[in-house]
Amino acid sequence: MAEIVQRGLWFEEFTAGDVYRHAPGRTITEADNTWFSAVTMNPQAIHVDAAFAAEQPFGQRLVNSMFTLATLVGLSVSQLSQGTIVANLGFSEVSFPAPLFHGDTLYAVTEIKETRLSKSRPGQGIVTLEHRGYNQDGVLVARAVRQTLMHCRPQDADAADGPGGAQGDAGGPSGAPGAEVAAGAQASLGPAGAGGGSGIADAGGAAGTTTEGTR
């Protein structure tokens, strides 16, 4: 009987153009927003003062955008970087095109933009990702380009992962640029148009075949 290790992807398993749809999504609560704002020393009234926020343009409290960004990245971890990342190198082009409110559900999509071996760190490579976050209605609420330093596949990785690797034969990229990879056996994320095949692909995902992951 094989023993399969759950992990993210090694550097070699990333292919520019691949799109990953992560599952499950994360429903954001009032407690999440209040707690995050408190522990990050952010007393911004638009996040924590319901009466004040009711008189502002959106008519209600906004989810702290730093919480949105952190959650967007977090939703990708189990599928892409769990145990295989060396370091987060930085973010660029961060934007929040629409607000996120209490009770909204955040769904994440990641597109692989570029990969290259590190010139100064043998056995490691740099992967440029574009994370996109959508609410339950398929509205883009967050976008960030991110660079990560990833481990290359260790020589003993095949033995540790078991047959087919940690992701199984269908879990990682197919090798064909532009493949779309879904987490788990869930073909669509959330309600129709909010992360399903058409809702997210039409909003900036790469058009390609969908591969169902095994994790």
What is the element layout, followed by pairings?
Layout: E1 19-21, E2 26-27, H1 30-39, H2 45-48, H3 50-54, H4 65-74, H5 77-80, E3 85-95, E4 105-117, E5 124-134, E6 140-151, H6 157-161, E7 180-182, H7 197-201, E8 210-212
What this model shows, in words?
It comes from Sediminivirga luteola. This is MaoC-like domain-containing protein. By secondary structure, this protein is α+β, with helices and mostly antiparallel strands. The protein has a single domain (about 10-30, about 65-210), classed as Hotdog Thioesterase (Thiol Ester Dehydrase, Chain A). It contains 7 helices and 8 strands; from the N terminus they run ββαααααββββαβαβ. Strands 1, 2, 3, 4, 5, 6, 7 and 8 form an 8-stranded mixed sheet that branches. The longest helix is centred in the first third of the chain and has 10 residues, at about 30-40. The model is unreliable at about 160-175 and about 190-215 (pLDDT under 50).
